[in-house]
Specification:
By secondary structure, this protein is of the alpha/beta class. Helices cover 29% and strands 21% of the residues. It has a seven-stranded mixed sheet, with helices on both faces. The protein has a two-stranded antiparallel sheet with strand order 1-2. The structure holds S-adenosylmethionine (SAM). The site of S-adenosylmethionine has 22 residues, from α1.
Length: 258
């Protein structure tokens, strides 16, 4: 790995490749989900397959300005737009954003897509949004301090930050063994797939996105340090890997900008 390696540039290409390979988080919602959302029957996930509690959102989504942050793939954005919100989807992967544009065109939904790195939301003015919806994605971002600072800036006072992230504890396990559904403790935290030798990383992660465990201090403490007030927190087992038998692999939080 050279000194000028840029993990976010790497992850842009890696996520575009995941889209081409039919990644679960790149499959757009179908017309029946959009039809139901138009009738007010909708839910979106922040973590795994867990519906986010409806009470975490405003009662009425009509006209609510929602930023779906690192949330491409044609999933949360189109559903919230069909439910009446004014939606912007921001993501680092052009192909993930193309999924949202596809659903919007298919369904006649109005939705804006913006390409970029979640550490820099300078495409948006201060207080431009009422709600941020950020499904599991911070594991792909090297540094979270700017993410929480930018999230706070682009929310209006009283606005809500909904975010889902990995329980860092899942990163103590060897990834290759996890693929065999075995739990082998291998790593110290904090962990990044960049800590591995290139051979080991390619064996475990292929040419996929670079991942970072990020501590709870970075995830939850970071939101608090940025000035958010935490109102809710839930945990859930990982939807796919074998850690689910032993610990909650995911955490979701709701925080408010005072
Ligand atoms: C697991 S997907 C989340 C979206 C998906 N719809 C979901 O429900 O989980 C992770 C997303 O984070 C995006 N991403 C990764 N790093 C990013 C960054 N630095 N800035 C913005 N988006 C990023 C990826 O391109 C990908 O679309």
């Amino acid at each position: 790995m050279t000194d000028d390696f840029d993990p976010v540039a790497h992850n842009r290409v890696a996520w575009d490749d995941l889209v081409d390979n039919d990644n679960e988080w790149s499959r757009p919602v179908g017309p029946e989900i959009i039809a139901r959302a138009r009738e007010g029957d909708w839910s979106v996930v922040l973590i795994g397959h867990e519906p986010t509690p409806r009470t975490w959102f405003p009662d009425d989504l009509a006209g609510i300005r929602v930023l779906c942050l690192a949330s491409g793939g044609g999933q949360q954005g189109p559903v919230l737009a069909a439910a009446g919100a004014t939606v912007t989807v921001f993501d680092n992967s052009p192909k993930q954003l193309a999924r949202d544009d596809e659903v919007a065109a298919r369904e006649g939904l109005v939705l804006r897509t913006v390409l970029g790195d979640m550490r820099d939301l300078s495409a948006f003015e201060d207080a431009a949004f009422d709600v941020i919806v950020n499904p599991v994605s911070t594991l792909f971002c090297p540094d979270l301090k700017p993410v929480w600072a930018e999230a706070r800036r682009v929310l209006r006072p009283g606005g809500t930050l909904l975010t889902g992230f990995m329980n860092p504890d899942v990163y103590i396990f060897d990834e290759v063994a996890l693929d065999r559904r075995e739990l082998v403790v291998r790593h110290r935290l904090p962990f990044s797939s960049l800590d591995l030798s290139e051979d080991d990383r390619l064996r475990a992660y292929g040419d996929g996105p670079i991942e970072y465990s990020h501590s709870l201090t970075e995830q939850i403490g970071g939101q608090l340090a940025a000035g958010f007030i935490l109102t809710h927190l839930t945990e859930a087992p990982h939807h796919a890997d074998v850690t689910a038998q032993h610990l909650p692999g995911y955490i979701a939080t709701r925080a408010v900008k005072p």
